[in-house]
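If you are new to this repository, start here. Below is one unmodified record pulled from the training split, so you can see the exact layout before writing a loader.
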Amino acid sequence: MSIRIREQDDINILDIDGRIDINSSELIEMVGWLVNSGKLSIIFNFENVDVVDYNGLSILAIAYKNIINHNGKLKLLNVPISVVEMLKVVKLDSVFEIYSDEETAISSFTESEVQKMHLRRKFPRLDIHLNVKYQMVSDNRNPKSFNGNVLNISAAGLYIYTKHTLPVGTLLDLHFVMPDSAAVLDATGRVSWLADKELQPHAYPGMGVSFSHLTMEKERAIVDFIDKNVSHRADQS
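And here is the target side for that same chain:
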């Protein structure tokens, strides 16, 4: 495997040539160099990739985790159908953003930032301490459940401080009680990032979870609670 790096509009595009397999640690090293240099917008171009085996998928997952844990973004470009099908098998198709043309892939970084800013304006975040019970969404009738502490929350998602972290992309059932409410709030969320011990020592170990399929009623309850407490804290300061 060989890798060529080129930069366009502050996006680093890695043109990969050959196989991505157990011998592709160079890709992990290249990503490590990029993120440590502050280059956090990255595209993997698969146009000249011959084969990606299951060991190669592990290489991609490690690289992705490194980028996400440095608050970066990774997009995949020109991914062969065979690889897309393999990603589906291992449930990674919902984790990676895949594009078929370079211009769209590059513009998606700007669009993502605009959407992120929109979410921040729409969903203020509140530092808080709540107990949360969570478990993987699965076909198992009795999936193993874990307990954690919510350190902050918005209507877009929450951060769970817990030693029982799960891989990025994992879909979770969440159960927690908002203060001043006796009702348990049930929600579904997806692990979007994992805390980095060096970057977030006070919040490590833990994981960020983005809500998915949150009903308008539940979203409104969270927003109202946050608005009330943000206003209350502002009045006290």
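Two things worth knowing about this chain: Residues 155 and 219 are 6 Å apart (CA to CA). Residues 233-237 have pLDDT under 50 and may be disordered.
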